[in-house]
Amino acid sequence: MSNILFQPTACLHCQALLEESREMGNFCSLSCFAAHDRSYGSLHDYKSGMYARPATKAQAEASAAAALVDGGYGIIQVDGVSCFVQP
Ligand SMILES: [Zn+2]
Description:
- This protein is an alpha+beta fold.
- It folds into 2 domains: 1-36, no CATH class; 38-86, no CATH class.
- Strands 2-1-4-3 form a 4-stranded antiparallel beta sheet, covered by helices on one side.
- The protein is built from 2 helices and 4 strands, in the order H-E-E-H-E-E.
- Bound molecules: zinc ion.
- Residues 11, 13-14, 16, 27-29, 32 line the site of zinc ion.
- Zinc ion (ZN) is lined by residues 11, 13-14, 16, 27-29, 32.
């Protein structure tokens, strides 16, 4: 039995399922760890508020720009879905 009760089962960066060995902790690869480390915030679904995935630099910038004109929500369209970026 492995002790996974208090650990996420997916990579914190790309959401890929983690291998049982977990050599990279909560990340599937060193590149994901590095990418997450310089994260631009997290992308959330606007309607549900649910976390979707890490935001890209472009999304973070677009959300920051949108927040100036939409009352601070920073709503952007990602794949046709209203989202916001949580810095
Ligand atoms: Zn990953």
